[in-house]
UniProtKB/TrEMBL annotation:
SUPFAM superfamilies: PRTase-like, Winged helix' DNA-binding domain. It comes from Fastidiosipila sanguinis. Pfam families: Pribosyltran (PF00156), PuR_N (PF09182). One of its GO terms (biological process) is negative regulation of DNA-templated transcription. This is Pur operon repressor. The keyword Ligase does not apply. Belongs to the purine/pyrimidine phosphoribosyltransferase family. PurR subfamily. GO terms for molecular function: DNA binding. It comes from the Bacteria.
Amino acid sequence: MNFKRSERLVDMTALLVQNPHKLFTLKDFTTRYGAAKSSISEDVAILRKTFQHQGLGQVNTYIGVSGGFEYIPLIPRDKQIELVESIIELIDDEKRILPGGYIYISDLIEKPNVLREIGKILASQHPDDDIDYIMTVATKGIPIAQALSYELNVPTLIARKESKVTEGSTVSIKYSSQSNPRLVKNMEIGRESIRPNSKVILVDDFIRGGGTIKGMEQLVNIFDSTVVARYIFCENVDAEKVKPKDIQSLVRIDGQNLQNGIIKVGLGSLFD
């Protein structure tokens, strides 16, 4: 079947967006659409210009024997800030204040539209990085990790307090909770989960002291691999605790008044 240009553009857009960071060869497209190489090259040029103009990402072209086309999710910084500010409006509600200085955000990271934007924002920080895994700890960080995994087209690793039988033998570490240093926790991951010399991004939903992130980093180090970034959806700034500077957040809780029901929330450290 031969496709008209309009049909090719629609189908090609869907194919690229659904497969970010995947290299398609020119032959893949000429075979799929029954079109000449010159026509496909013109199609890709149209998509590249449109994606860039609309702030949807970039379509890279590679020449040579192993060349082809690749879609890279990349949101402009001003658009990233606009998206996070829309999330902040949802958080700025006195009903979200929980005992112990926590903020209820579970409903936000369950919304597909919010997760999709979070994934694109975080993926935009790594347009040219060869990332191998996204790692989080069960359970609240899983949706965020999977959203980022989709945009970077890499696997999600889930560390657990207790491993499941189906995961086989595991590697475990003990780590201290930053909010309660006397509380020692356990974290495990499958022994075959990470290839040596891999590049890993760590993500979690909420942070006060950074103990969980440190625990995940210890696991990554066991596999002789490298943590290239550490992301948190929501950070609660506590004057009594110092958050590691290399952990970046999308949203920051700078203060709250339990009596008046006031939450001071703003852009996270990713935008400092």
